[in-house]
């Protein structure tokens, strides 16, 4: 591979979080790769905080080149595309402003693209070292098979395709451009982008040694809303790109069963005990997962946090999935049985 160009461009979409951005930039200054061989592009998605001032603090001849771009608020996908359009590195790497990469993160992430057939790589999101308990618990949950199908750690997934998340991913720049960059949607855009890359026949590789710490800070309300929107996005991806596996519908089936159980309690109360056993089994499974979190994180409180996060996330995701499926069904029903041309009586000709 020719090194006439920069080896990599690190693209970071930012919306406020100026204090987190300082920590991220500090860690990027400590990367094992030579500072002259990569650049950093900070893409400000309409922040109300003064992000440019933070960037200027780190701009120095001894540091990697840091570029700053700003756009009106359009979402992280558009911000990443802004960075992609201005990047000059042979490989583009993506992370988020609330992440802290290990010192050898970038080197570990891009070497497989430089030295093998892999065109896209995804790294490991460490769930143990985040600053906040809620963030450690959420990262544990998203990395587990029961919690989120191993979304952040494919080693826990069973028979699922691997789609790297944009908090820790690298891709050959020409492949990213050929894939059309990121879609405009605010949820599921990273999965769709990875699928576009895969559809080009590109090999996608998981690199567990390329680690970052993700300092997530979400209230239960924010967690619920995000899970709901991810459920909506999953239906969109299934419809537009055929991206669907059985496990994606599991939370929706849980919600449907709870609805049926409620009806059973009203209509046939004598069957309530037996029909509630599957829900009890689900709760036991989540509790076992929560106990595992408590052991892995070495914190008793993590048991209760993971238990509540998991149930809230599953139900919210399932509701979003079902609501979108219902919306599509009603739209199809209206189109088939109440076409516009008939409702207007052929414009009363």
Task: Give the rounded overall mean pLDDT.
Answer: 90
Q: How does the helix and strand content classify structurally?
A: alpha/beta
**Global outline:** globular
Instruction: Kindly report the spatial arrangement of strands forming the biggest sheet.
Output: 3-2-1-4-7-6-8-5
The helix content, as a percent range, equals: 40-55%
The CATH homologous superfamily of the largest domain is named Spore Coat Polysaccharide Biosynthesis Protein SpsA, Chain A
**What is the element string, with H for helices and E for strands?**
EHEHEHEEHEHHEHHEHHHHHHH
Q: How much of the residues is beta strand, in percent? A: 15-25%
Tally of discrete structural domains? 2
> Could you tell me how far the N terminus lies from the C terminus, measured between alpha carbons in angstroms?
69 Å
Rg, rounded, reads 23 Å
- The CATH level-2 architecture of the largest domain is identified as Alpha-Beta Complex
CATH fold annotation of the largest domain:
Spore Coat Polysaccharide Biosynthesis Protein SpsA, Chain A
By DSSP (H or I, 4+ residues per run), the number of helices equals: 15
What characterizes the major β-sheet? Answer: 8 strands, mixed
The CATH C-level class name of the largest domain: Alpha Beta
**Count of extended strands:** 8
Give unreliable regions as ranges.
Answer: 345-349
Organism: Gimesia aquarii
Keywords: Membrane, Transmembrane, Transmembrane helix
Transmembrane segments: 246-268, 280-307
InterPro entries: Glyco_trans_2-like, Glycosyltransf_2, Nucleotide-diphossugar_trans
């Amino acid at each position: 591979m020719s090194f006439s160009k920069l080896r990599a461009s690190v693209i970071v979409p930012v919306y406020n979080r100026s204090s987190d951005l300082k920590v991220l930039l500090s860690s990027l200054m400590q990367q094992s790769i030579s500072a002259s061989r990569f650049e950093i592009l900070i893409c400000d998605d309409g922040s109300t905080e003064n992000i440019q001032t933070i960037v200027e603090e780190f701009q120095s001849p001894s540091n990697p080149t840091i570029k700053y771009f700003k756009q009106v608020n359009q979402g992280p996908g558009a911000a990443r595309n802004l960075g992609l359009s201005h990047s000059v590195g042979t490989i583009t790497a993506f992370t988020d402003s609330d992440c802290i990469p290990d010192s050898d993160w970038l080197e570990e992430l891009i070497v497989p693209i430089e030295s093998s057939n892999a065109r896209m790589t995804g790294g490991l999101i460490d769930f143990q070292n985040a600053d906040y308990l809620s963030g450690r618990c959420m990262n544990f949950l998203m990395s587990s098979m029961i919690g989120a199908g191993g979304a952040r750690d494919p080693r826990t997934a069973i028979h699922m395709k691997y789609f790297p998340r944009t908090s820790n991913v690298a891709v050959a720049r020409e492949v990213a451009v050929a894939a059309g960059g990121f879609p405009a949607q605010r949820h599921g855009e990273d999965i769709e982008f990875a699928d576009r890359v895969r559809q080009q026949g590109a090999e996608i590789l998981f690199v567990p040694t390329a680690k970052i710490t993700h300092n997530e800070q979400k209230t239960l309300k924010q967690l619920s809303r995000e899970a709901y929107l991810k459920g909506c996005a999953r239906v969109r991806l299934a419809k537009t790109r055929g991206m669907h596996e059985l496990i994606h519908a599991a939370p929706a089936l849980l919600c449907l069963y709870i609805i049926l159980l409620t009806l059973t309690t009203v209509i046939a109360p004598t069957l309530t005990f037996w029909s509630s056993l599957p829900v009890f089994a689900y709760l036991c499974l989540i509790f076992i997962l929560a106990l595992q979190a408590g052991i892995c994180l070495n914190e008793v409180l993590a048991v209760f946090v993971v238990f509540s996060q998991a149930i809230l996330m599953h139900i919210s995701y399932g509701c979003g999935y079902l609501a979108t499926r219902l919306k599509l069904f009603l739209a199809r029903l209206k189109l088939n049985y109440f076409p516009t041309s008939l409702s207007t009586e052929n414009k009363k000709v």
